[in-house]
Amino acid sequence: MDMRRYRGFLVPGLYEGIAANRDEAVERFYQGLVGAARRVMRTAKIDVTVIGAENIPAHDGAMLAGNHTGYADFILLGTGPYLHGNRLVRFMAKASVFNVPVLGHLLKVMKHVPVDRARGGDSIAPAVDMLRSGNLVGIFPEATISRSFELAHFKTGAARIAHQAGVPLIPCAIWGSQRIWTKDLPKHFRNVPVIVRYGEPVQLTGDADADTTELKRRMQLLLDASRAQYADFFDDGQGEPWMPVALGGTAPTLEEADAIYARERAEREAKKAAKAARKRRK
User: Looking at the UniProt record for this protein, which Gene Ontology cellular component terms does it annotate, in alphabetical order (predicted)?
Assistant: First the structure.
């Protein structure tokens, strides 16, 4: 595949950018943060290849679903929208975070989406409204970083929200992010190549389980393509802790990663229970 530089990123030679989305281009604060992140990546030589950005709509709403292997994924998932019309991604976050001083205000300014799980099925309503208003909403169906760097269990929220809102569900695979900053591994903030690949929208049937299975299948295809390209052009990761064990690396297996997550969750619940008990004694 012939590649070229476009706005600081590597893109396919035939990719053509489009005019900026006028409504989102005027959001100075969020656009300023995106610009700052781009400059930081360029200075740190985080070399990002973006493929498939043309699958992102120029103006209308869409749900972007990405795999989750590192803390930089929030920035990386937004590279395609940035290239294709200076679009912005509204990410879903716990409602409690929006109550944190300063941070909560900034999240609201950037129109990120609060999710109150206590509301049950109604918890997706803010995301549906945001999509119907013509925004891009980002979600990680695994809901947490996958320590195995394989696709872990997917929740059905992305499929349910996109279908209810009547918008495209666009799969995205990010590969290389785990080398920058992830759980349990050393950080490397310089000289790391990353590939971000977007696919065509998943055809939604309204069956959330079936649609989620198809989303995961499509994301696996994108991930396989990016891994092959990464090995050819950058690093095959043999014997490295950032590579899945099934591909010659030393990362935890899916089962080992699930066990670590279960242990951490139990520890968090124990801490919450102990804190609640202390409050009752007072």
Answer: plasma membrane
- Write phi, then psi, for 75 (nearest 5 degrees): -75, -45
Fold topology of 3-251: Glycerol-3-phosphate (1)-acyltransferase (3.40.1130)
pLDDT band at 252 (very low <50, low <70, confident <90, very high): very high
> Does residue 85 contact residue 18 with C-beta atoms inside 8 Å?
yes
235: tokens are 């690093």
Q: By three-state DSSP, how is residue 62 classified?
A: strand
Torsion sign, CA atoms 96, 99, 102, 106: positive
- As a whole number of angstroms, the distance between CA 157 and CA 261 comes to 20
Q: What does DSSP assign to residue 239?
A: T
Question: What is the domain partition of the chain in residue ranges?
Answer: 3-251, 254-281
Residue 69: pLDDT over 90: yes
Q: What is the pTM of this model?
A: 0.94
